[in-house]
Structure prediction request, 396 residues.
Amino acid sequence: METAGSKSAQLTANAAADLPAGALQAKLEQAKKEGRQLRVKLGLDPTAPDIHLGHTVVLTKLREFQDQGHRVVLIVGDYTARVGDPSGRSETRPVLSADEIISNASSYEAQAGRILDQNPELYELRYNSQWLDMPVTDLLALMRTTTVAQLLEREDFSSRYKAGSPISVMELLYPLMQGYDSVAVEADVEIGGTDQTFNILLGRDIQRQYAMAEQVALTMPILTGIDGVEKMSKTKGNEISIESSADEMFGRTMRLPDEAMASWFDLLAIPAAPAGAGPRDVKVFLAKAIVERFHDLAAADRAEAQFVSQFVEHELPEQVDVFILDASEGAVHLPMALAEAFGISRSEARRLLGQGGVKLNGEVVSGDRLDLEPSLIDGAVVQIGRRRFKRLKIAK
Prediction:
């Protein structure tokens, strides 16, 4: 029979920290003694329409708690999103409109359901507008739980304060609002990235001020984006959305630097590649595992074959969008055609031509061939960069 210690070891296996040290095992033992589930909280602010692989690190950890029989509480931060989490920020976040937040929140709810078990015995979905839309008297009571000195202990606030960068009062309220979420849902455990450590620990202080048992902080390392450097983020353009097509998911994973693969295997809980596999084969194994998780094995096999065909064997993709060109004036001016077909400037098109970055039916177009006969263009596939293709057709 599994003990609280062995279950705790499973849950903390790829975590960054269990704070206070050993507190999770104590919570598990207490819950077993009381014959109840733990309430395990995760808050996600719907600041973008899609959940990406970085979000799945903490969502998968939630699922592990469910698999042990505990109840997870997923909080969609429709109110905290109006503030914007200042964690790791050197400036104030832009404010989203109410319509954007509502739309994104609906999308988050549906996408999270692809990872979590939505059995009502194991799953609870809450929106923090349910309690954060509070009377001023309740807000003042919340504000009395925390001092400005406590908030300025945060590295991001501290560095901005020392640099004389603006910090809005609204941003200072964010950690309090997140902490009050833990009060509202009576959280036993809160999961978050390492960038959330301050907020989660402050939640313990706020729970104590409301005469509640303090939650355990279980923090997870941050998944880097496909650049292998920055935190995965739609803002940085280095994300892989779980709603991506199989081909896009596979192709973007293949852009991951070799040195970042180990952390992806660990944080995404993907079994190790076969022993002795080279770096490229390991990356293919990783990409297929990710596609299979969010699509299926057949889609993963097709995505691999498509990638090999397109980038290894240098064949064209099976489906290429058609762009209609007007050649009523005779010769087709290639910089203009590229600009119209791919939505780039003519100067960018000339630069690509000069660098040998344009191919016509798989062959590099010389930089001095700026005007082509329509017969050479009609039906041809033009390629710029590694992944952008158009089939050009001459309007009749």
